[in-house]
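Run log, item B.
One chain of 216 residues. Sequence copied directly from the ordering sheet:
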Amino acid sequence: MNRPVPSPLRAVFLSAEGVLYALFLALDLTGRGGQSVPIKYAGIVLCLAYSLLGTDRLVPLALALTAGADWFLLVRNDQYLLGIALFLAVQTVYFLRLRRAGADGAYFLRSVLALGAELGVYALGMASAVNLAAALYFSQLLSNTLLAWTVDGARRHAFALGLTLFVGCDVCVGLFNALPPASPLYFPASVGMWLFYLPSQALIALSAFPGKENVK
């Protein structure tokens, strides 16, 4: 079934996400990031709820896994390996979505990026289970992002842009965890994580609807 979401409902979704976005950015920029956690998580749950109204069943599944990952990594701030494993599952679902849309499997690219990421972690002397899992996850996110831009259609462009912002978020996550707090890039990276992340998830939620709904 190819039912479009009513424009007023889409406007409510985007307005609500915009309010949440402004609230947590204001807290993050004023050094009160700890108070922004419930607001950030509400934004992810709202993306999941909105995607359930769409026509693509893989998007709600991926966003449910995303909400699970954020529960451990953001809300509880523990069980990092489990959270990363859930994010890896998210990228597996997105890969299935891309294949369904006609994208090439690009298995050589995925393998090379995964191997390069793992070897990079070893070369930096950071080969813990969490870091190796994070490197594998990021390689799959990057592969999916490159593939997403090869698929035509307005809905796919929203998805590709969402994944691209997702990459921006995870680059900031990597910098935040690798840099000392005294680094001039530490604070921008701490803000940049969610500066990119919530818009990425909102775009992915929008991509669950018919293509014409994503270009109005």
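Observations after the first pass:
- Residues 154-178 form the longest helix (25 residues).
- The helical segments are 7-29, 37-51, 58-75, 80-100, 107-123, 129-148, 154-178, 186-206.
Flagged for discussion on Thursday.
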